[in-house]
Amino acid sequence: MAHKFINEIEPGELIDDVYMITEPILRSTTRGDLYMAMFLSDKTGRLDGRMWQATETVYKSLPKPGFVHIEGRSELYQNKLQIVVNNISVIDASKVAIEDFLARTDRDVGQMFDEVKRIVGRVKNPQLKALVGEFLADDELMGKFRDCPGAMKIHHDYLGGLLEHTHDMLQVAVAILPLYEQVQADLVLAGIFLHDIGKTEELSYDMAFSYTDSGQLLGHITQSLLMLNRKADALAAKGTKIDQTVLDALGHIILSHHGEYEFGSPKLPATPEAFMVYYIDDLDAKINQVIAAIDSEQSDSNWTGWKNALQTKLYRKRIE
Amino acid sequence: MAHKFINEIEPGELIDDVYMITEPILRSTTRGDLYMAMFLSDKTGRLDGRMWQATETVYKSLPKPGFVHIEGRSELYQNKLQIVVNNISVIDASKVAIEDFLARTDRDVGQMFDEVKRIVGRVKNPQLKALVGEFLADDELMGKFRDCPGAMKIHHDYLGGLLEHTHDMLQVAVAILPLYEQVQADLVLAGIFLHDIGKTEELSYDMAFSYTDSGQLLGHITQSLLMLNRKADALAAKGTKIDQTVLDALGHIILSHHGEYEFGSPKLPATPEAFMVYYIDDLDAKINQVIAAIDSEQSDSNWTGWKNALQTKLYRKRIE
Amino acid sequence: MAHKFINEIEPGELIDDVYMITEPILRSTTRGDLYMAMFLSDKTGRLDGRMWQATETVYKSLPKPGFVHIEGRSELYQNKLQIVVNNISVIDASKVAIEDFLARTDRDVGQMFDEVKRIVGRVKNPQLKALVGEFLADDELMGKFRDCPGAMKIHHDYLGGLLEHTHDMLQVAVAILPLYEQVQADLVLAGIFLHDIGKTEELSYDMAFSYTDSGQLLGHITQSLLMLNRKADALAAKGTKIDQTVLDALGHIILSHHGEYEFGSPKLPATPEAFMVYYIDDLDAKINQVIAAIDSEQSDSNWTGWKNALQTKLYRKRIE
Amino acid sequence: MAHKFINEIEPGELIDDVYMITEPILRSTTRGDLYMAMFLSDKTGRLDGRMWQATETVYKSLPKPGFVHIEGRSELYQNKLQIVVNNISVIDASKVAIEDFLARTDRDVGQMFDEVKRIVGRVKNPQLKALVGEFLADDELMGKFRDCPGAMKIHHDYLGGLLEHTHDMLQVAVAILPLYEQVQADLVLAGIFLHDIGKTEELSYDMAFSYTDSGQLLGHITQSLLMLNRKADALAAKGTKIDQTVLDALGHIILSHHGEYEFGSPKLPATPEAFMVYYIDDLDAKINQVIAAIDSEQSDSNWTGWKNALQTKLYRKRIE
Amino acid sequence: MAHKFINEIEPGELIDDVYMITEPILRSTTRGDLYMAMFLSDKTGRLDGRMWQATETVYKSLPKPGFVHIEGRSELYQNKLQIVVNNISVIDASKVAIEDFLARTDRDVGQMFDEVKRIVGRVKNPQLKALVGEFLADDELMGKFRDCPGAMKIHHDYLGGLLEHTHDMLQVAVAILPLYEQVQADLVLAGIFLHDIGKTEELSYDMAFSYTDSGQLLGHITQSLLMLNRKADALAAKGTKIDQTVLDALGHIILSHHGEYEFGSPKLPATPEAFMVYYIDDLDAKINQVIAAIDSEQSDSNWTGWKNALQTKLYRKRIE
Amino acid sequence: MAHKFINEIEPGELIDDVYMITEPILRSTTRGDLYMAMFLSDKTGRLDGRMWQATETVYKSLPKPGFVHIEGRSELYQNKLQIVVNNISVIDASKVAIEDFLARTDRDVGQMFDEVKRIVGRVKNPQLKALVGEFLADDELMGKFRDCPGAMKIHHDYLGGLLEHTHDMLQVAVAILPLYEQVQADLVLAGIFLHDIGKTEELSYDMAFSYTDSGQLLGHITQSLLMLNRKADALAAKGTKIDQTVLDALGHIILSHHGEYEFGSPKLPATPEAFMVYYIDDLDAKINQVIAAIDSEQSDSNWTGWKNALQTKLYRKRIE
Predict the structure, then answer these.
(1) Alpha carbon distance D123, D144 (integer Å)
(2) Which residues of F11-48 are buried (b: 16+ CB within 10 A; e: fewer)?
(3) Closest C-alpha among D153, D166, D177, D16 to residue D83
(4) Residues 6+ apart with CB under 8 A from B300
């Protein structure tokens, strides 16, 4: 049975479905009865839930947060939709269609990953080729690379977003590298492939998008660099020594790709390749962000609401 | 006879050639004799010039600045090369090979201009097509467009630089527009073609690169917008009315293409097309600037000198 | 019958008056009945409105936003005043006393406009005189100039605010110009008259204050400059050529009058006249803003609330 | 005998006049002879001086810096004018026409001071009147107030500059206060009179303009406030108690009159009077600075050189 | 009887205790009856209060704000706790245990003050010793010094916080001064003792923490400096002249101890002693702020919520 | 024979000593003879050198830069001291007393290193103890740690500066940690020990202070983190697994110790320990920098010259 999405629920419907529960609280009414308040959500939105005649046993059994099966009814209360819960039971995360709860790219992940492999397969420099190959051969990591969101919010903030962003940046690079002959193509392609690879360690995205402790304390830029050096150490152990010069040039692209200190880059771009990766990253992220904001605007206005990260509203009217 | 370039002159050579003269000054020696100090330059550098036994008549005849034919001799004075002038005569600018004095793109101007026309010829929107056509039909303006430098300094700072920069941006746009389907291609192409067109009025580049008074007071962003509106008025007078919606969308690209207030844009990008033009402009300018700095570095160091505009040195060593 | 202002309505009153309606929504209650929620407002404030037993026909007939005649009753609901609507009917904007809905200067518009004409009538430079005259002769534009607010918010944010601000700046200029002899008075007077003229195109103020699409995309600084150039073109067509030097000096005042890049000026002041207009503009706007904040403070405190644009609270106590 | 100004000396003149000497150094030539290098200056400029056959006795007798009588000759050395000194003798500062060494306002100090007294004489609030009177009655301080420069550099950087700047600000205030009725005129006038009074303690201007130790460590804003409180204490000792409310309002004007933290104001303007003093101060200082830069430009160009404090060149061409 | 703290009240309790009342408002219900809304608070939090059947006489008798004795009952209304008031009577502030309403340091004030006296007793320089002694001898001021909070919020925001912060800074100074021999210890100790002494005049903390008018207009940095100069004047009147050099060095520490213009210091640190006081102040304030934020976090998360003043969340997990 | 320091050379001395040569250039005179210009330096300064009758053979034999034995004579040329070189011969770096060329701490390196070991020996947490031990056991690295300068310039810019700075920070930490009980002492001590350890890879200091390529591209913050992870990997290989929690907490201190993004920290401090290391680092660096500037001031003034990094002059007068 298809999941009933939160943003499809009308007042007065019977509810019999799985939702994510967050911040459940047990309270007593003026008369001394216990009741429970909670949020119920999926990837399309969130509603208040109320369970009258709750018990402490039920309350203690609930995950905070986690998945629950809900039986109940939707109703309007003070002009706001809420769900009155009659029965609640815990559901193991493994039994849940996670796509109902976390947004996911609507593009073909397999196809995008094949294209990424095809493009980085063009790298000719033997050491860069070995490094790229070492990452591609790490099945567990590549699994995360295909799943990971591109960011917590702002742009590519959905499962598969990291792959989609990396894929699109590689396509841009392939298109424009012939126009800039002096820029070392191998470095740009390897740099794009690895520039955000640390996001697989920075972000947690099993039930909701959040930062890992390591991610919050170190950040994906540093984590990407550590992963690069671990792969180089692994290659060295297998007899393929990567020159420090190569690690410096590639590491510098990773460190400087945010382009400014205030965005968390500890070094500013200092090579043509670092500049190119920085601009392609920013271009692809901003166009994704702008198009998404325009597409998701609910009103009929020619303008979206104010976008703080861009310090402007966005204009939606087309001349075509 | 080929011009003897300033940076090719060795001590002790006979000089018989045309140079640009700037800041000539008439002075008297301790003994009361008159002599003249001046700078002599071409596009490769500048030397001190000294003319002993100068007269007020000669001094008054000289352009300040302008071109002069010099007969004399190079010599070392306090370890610095200078030119001792025996004869000096004024040369009309029309007789001068201006390429010896102003750097010029080494790429084929005709070919680049044809390619620009070919690419903007792909614009299908009838009003944008009419606007682009009105600019292309203005032979005097197109002549300036082919000659004008891309900037006073920093990037594309040579004759033909504006055309080269516009050409390269158009090629980048053609390469990546298919990857971003929702971005309106016609607006991006017309926007790139016109984004810096006001530089033809902002800059003066007959003998040396400088700002015109209008350019310094208004700036090329505003001048580009004025030119756009004049062409639209001209079209309207001929019966082709350009909708305000089109002028707004195209004008906004021009106004916002520096991307930040502090770089002189009175508006921040608020459309996908404005973001794309801004990033392509910045990418092409920075890659040009970085490659030029790396190529022109005199030392053998792995690093260029400090580049203030980029807040870093640049790394010159290649891994290939 | 005098309009009953929103901020004068007490609980339990009968309502029979015209209000602006915004964001009407049709909803169904728990029992399945349709009802309608809406905002009802005039220039003094905004209340929630509820119409029980609404129909889709009525809902579809309503402007969004627009003016409506309301019959109903005010009541407290959860300690908040709302209007229960019994009858609602659409009113054409032409039948409405717009002063009830948009704040307007309480000063005499005719008198202020006469004073503006009198002061700019002192301009002696023939070309500036012709330019100023061309604007004054444009009745439609001068009508807008008398009506237009000075800004969306912050200062002079009421109908007639642009005129009031321009008028007061001109009076300041007349008072201090004799103290600064080297400042060219004609340029200052013409510059003040035209510095914000583009606001007549940037702002929309028929039912509520908002930006036009052109205003949001181009901004009043650029729009003022375009208007200046169109008037100069019109004069040229009539045989009165305005020198580029005059257009540059006047245009520069317009472009630079915000004084800093981050406030949307694409050029920084570079003439004594541009500095003077910038300071007079800032002085008059800030004093208006500060006095208005002090006058409108509701509490008895010596201090207003925090004013974010000024990064301080304001002190209201007088020593007199 | 009139002083021979530094900027009037031609090569080959006999020199017999008083100059300021700074940084004298005793050196030995290749042959072992002693000679002395020094700078010789007055308010119009500075030249290198050389005294061959110097002795340690002479060197030790010289002030560093101070005034000396020079006998010698001007000559060109490597195209640079220098003074060859034959005799040098120390001159007491009291014997020197200090106007030859420190620039001084060319306006009438007595007239300006009378006008200042006349304007602040209009203050009616009894406590402000008492405070202003206490300052005016301090003859020693008023003597310094008439002499003190307005700043070390940038604007009003000459003897009498503080008076001139205060005088002009008061005139502006008198001209515009009638236009802003709600602004308390007495506070503005007293605030202007005292806003920079601490400069008399911050600056040293006997031989050259410099900061005192107190001035560098505390600054004129804080010093002005201390002086205000000392005068209030003195009045209190004489039985005229100044309310804290008055001292707060007046002190706040002094503290906030630089308008921004980064310019050394520890508080931002929070009263209409503080805003008005801030804007009048900035207006008068900037117009003075801009006019001075335009007037002192040596070249024939339409533009001055780059003015770092204003982040622009200044345009000198007039339309009149 | 112990005070019943706001954060300990459960639904359905009888209330018979003293609370602070703020913002009482008299309103009429739909039926025309009068009722009163108010906030009731102590140092642990704030609840809504409602008194049905209120009268204008009662309303007018209430302090706004002030202390009241409340008889009534707690209840849940729309899932939010509120207090229904049956009786309300005004309580004089002198009868109130102020500790129930304003947070206070939990450390021993007497002990800390003794330690402060002991440490500043080590000052040997006779003039600094006299100045410090003059402050210590001012019993009224020292009483305020022991009571005053360290700041309105952010750090040491509780009664006794100024003493605690000063005490801890002095201990840090005593610990590290031996490691930096060239730093003048007497100046550092006296500077720390007095750096924030003006907070006793800047802050009001009788019922709630707020700024005094003088504090908001002048600020504690300037107020500290004024107090320093008044004590020096008092000493001078008693025959102990303090050199300007000493007042400059000590005053400079006070003025510059915020370290940056944007934090309200009108001077940047320019002596080793000023740098040391600035760093010790910032270190102690930040560690206090960070530890307090970690300790007061309610959730079980490894992280606190976002701290805007620090631009980060704080990590709470310990490795020990 | 003691080295003759550059700043001790008087005009007319015979020179027979070793100096560093940089930027030698071969040139021809007006007469066509070859001569050589060069810089000759040691740690006390730099002079121009001239060798007349140079040959291309000699020129080609010279290191650029490197050490040379010079025979010649000092003389004044245009009032500037230079060295006329008669004989020049290359000296191997191993034969040179490097202390003559690179400034070195004047404190006892062995004693400081012992003290560092003693203090970090107090670390009790087994994993931090293991990590610290792994670094201490790396003799080659510890050798560099003892030699490395603390920075290229600004503070601790001499051999042994890194050790001195680390040593002094550890002493400050030991002194103040008892005052802040909730701060985890082990993390602070280990964090200080390792916070700048990457400078041993970032800086090159064999003949002159410069950045390595890796240092310029990656930076010591990132390099320190890589070294930490390599040591952890090495420990893991030996069976001592370091928890990610420990690596995160320690790594975070390293990454955030510059305290602000603009100083190259990719993360802002988010733990009490990170704040403490940041403040101790900044305090020790600034006090070192300020004392050094005061001590090295050449003039008799109460003030040093302007210090751009501190945005102030420094006051040198003591009150003691």
Answers:
(1) 23
(2) beeebebbbbbbebebeeeeeeebbbbbbbbbbeeebe
(3) D16
(4) none
Q: Which residues contact F4 (CB under 8 A, 6 or more apart)?
A: F13, F15, F17
Q: Which of E29, E35, E48 is the best residue to mutate to test the C interface, defined by the most C CB atoms within 10 Å of its own CB?
A: E29
Q: Which amino acid is at E105?
A: T
Asked if B266 and C222 come within 8 Å (Cβ–Cβ), the reply is: yes
β partners of residue E87: E71
Gap between the Cα atoms of F213 and F216, Å rounded? 5
Give the residue among C119, C86, C241 at the shortest CA–CA distance from C186: C119
Q: Does D59 touch chain B (CB under 8 A)?
A: no
CA-CA-CA-CA torsion for B116, B117, B118, B119, nearest 10 degrees? 50
Work out the end-to-end distance of chain B between its first and last CA atoms, rounded to an integer number of angstroms: 42
- Cβ–Cβ under 8 Å, residues E266 and D264: yes
Q: Supply F275's token pair.
A: 């704040």
- A285 close to B (CB below 8 A): no
Tell which residue, E41, E64, E40, E42, has the closest CA to residue E51: E40
- Return the pLDDT at E45: 83
Helix (H) or strand (E) holding D173: helix D161-176
Query: Judging by beta carbons within 10 Å of its beta carbon (0-12, 13-18, 19+), is residue A78 exposed, middle or buried?
Result: exposed
What does the alpha-carbon distance between residue B134 and residue B142 come to, in Å, rounded to a whole number?
Answer: 11
Task: Provide, as residue numbers in chain F, all residues whose Cβ is less than 8 Å from the Cβ of B315.
Answer: 213, 216-217
Query: Does C65 sit behind a cis peptide bond, omega within 30 degrees of 0 on the bond before it?
Result: yes
Task: Compute the distance between CA of residue C260 and CA of residue D259 in angstroms, rounded to an integer.
Answer: 15
CB contact under 8 A, D269 and C312: yes
Question: Tokens representing C145?
Answer: 């100039």
Tokens of E263: 């934090």
Residue B30 has pLDDT above 60, yes or no: no
With contacts defined as CB-CB under 8 Å, which chain A residues touch E78?
78
Whole-angstrom distance, CA of residue E62 vs CA of residue A124: 83
Q: Dump pLDDT digits (tens) for D259-307.
A: 999 999 999 999 999 999 999 999 999 999 999 999 988 777 899 999 9
Under DSSP, is residue B211 helix (H, G, I), strand (E, B) or coil? strand
> Rounded distance, CA E86 to CA E73, Å?
8
CB atoms within 10 A of CB C260: 14
Which band of pLDDT confidence, cut at 50, 70 and 90, is reported for residue A5? very high
Closest C-alpha to C260, from B254, A308, B218, B266: B266
Q: Is the pLDDT of residue A262 over 80?
A: yes
- 3 state SS for C119-176: HHCCCCCHHHHHHHHHHHCCHHHHHHHHHCCCCCCCCCCCECHHHHHHHHHHHHHHHH
Cβ pair C128, C190 in contact under 8 A? yes
Hunting for tokens 């003693």 — which residue is that? Answer: F118
Nearest to F255 by CA among E315, E91, A158, D176: E315
Which residue out of B26, B34, B216 would a mutagenesis test of the D interface target, given it has the greatest number of D Cβ atoms within 10 Å? B216
Could you tell me the maximum CA-CA distance found in chain B, to the nearest angstrom?
78
Q: Which residues of chain C have pLDDT under 50?
A: none
Q: What pLDDT sits at residue F29?
A: 67
- Taking alpha carbons only, the member of A249, A278, A251, A170 closest to residue B287 is A278
Neighbour count for residue C104 (Cβ, 10 Å)? 16
What is the least distance, in Å, from the CA of B30 to any CA of chain D?
A: 6
For residue C44, what pLDDT is reported? 83
Predicted ipTM of the assembly? 0.89
Which residues are C76's β-sheet partners? C81
For residue E119, give Cα distances in angstroms to A314, E138, E149, E164, E185: 61, 18, 21, 14, 11
